[in-house]
Write a structure and sequence with these properties.
This protein has one domain. The radius of gyration is 18 Å and the shape is globular. It contains two helices and 18 strands. The strands form six sheets. The protein has a four-stranded antiparallel sheet with strand order 2-3-8-9, with no helix packed on it. A four-stranded mixed sheet has the order 5-4-6-7, with helices on both faces. The chain has 259 residues and is mainly β. Keywords: Signal. It comes from Paraglaciecola mesophila.
Length: 259
């Protein structure tokens, strides 16, 4: 029987908790209430010799108690390095296009790796050892997510009850499956012979335009990647891909279907 993830979008959901919760019934609740969570996107490639140091820096966030609560890292592997000898198993043309879209909109100056995008804007502070900037002036509304073994329910509410939802700007809902503790032995290319340890790798990503429909159905995440763990990140953006709210949390391995 085909399994699906069910996305439920509601403008009137009010969540009651402000922490990640895993109930005894096997349900995980994520909410943005009372929090301002920063989305850190990293564009990387296993074919780029400059990327492993950046990835090692990102890896450390897995042990940070604030991860998922104040920071959600997501590492998108691009494919434009694949012709140099090593076909990155996590690379996607869609991820390369995502980075190029940021350039077209003026959010980033150029396309390169490793590249860092904080809250949809280029950030070069990593190269000089600066801390991640936390700017949330654009955050609004409440995002609540319920994750079960076969479904994800998403609800986004506008805190301003006077907002005219019929004329609201276009929004996009993003859902990403993140791989944690993934090891790859690179056999060719600039990183030949290296065993790369990677966290927060985007294994699957779907961006759904807000159609105004109360329910949207998409296939459940499937992967053939052998990771030590998995997490799900969900964020709402405006038409410029600026995050309005972000939530994320780890999920049991058996909730991810193998291809």
């Amino acid at each position: 029987m085909k399994r699906i993830i069910l996305l439920s979008f509601s403008l009137f959901f009010i969540c009651k908790t402000n922490i990640i919760q895993a109930s005894e019934s096997g349900v995980i609740h994520l909410t943005s209430e009372g929090k301002n969570t920063t989305l850190l996107e990293v564009f990387s490639s296993q074919g780029c010799s400059s990327c492993p140091p950046a990835q090692r820096w990102v890896n450390k966030f897995l042990d940070d108690p604030n991860v998922w609560h104040t920071l959600v890292p997501a590492v998108f592997h691009v494919d434009y390095w694949d012709d140099l000898g090593w076909a990155d198993p996590f690379a996607s043309k869609a991820f390369s296009q995502r980075q190029r879209h940021y350039k077209r909109t003026g959010n980033v100056q150029s396309v390169y790796t490793p590249a860092f995008v904080v809250e949809s804007r280029e950030w070069k502070g990593w190269f000089s050892g600066k801390p991640i900037p936390y700017i949330h002036s654009h955050h609004k509304g409440q995002l609540a997510v319920t994750i079960q073994d076969a479904s994800i329910d998403i609800a986004y509410s506008l805190t301003d009850i006077g907002t005219n939802t019929t004329s609201a700007p276009m929004r996009y809902y993003n859902v990403a499956l993140l791989g944690l503790g993934v090891t790859t032995l690179v056999k060719r290319g600039e990183n030949k012979g290296k065993a790369l340890e990677e966290n927060f790798i985007v294994l699957e990503h779907q961006q759904i335009e807000d159609s105004g429909a109360p329910f949207i159905q998409i296939p459940i995440f499937k992967t053939d990647i052998d990771a030590k763990g998995f997490a799900v990140a969900v964020w709402v953006t405006d038409s410029d891909l600026t995050p309005l709210q972000v939530v994320a949390g780890e999920v049991p391995n058996n909730w991810v279907v193998k291809k």
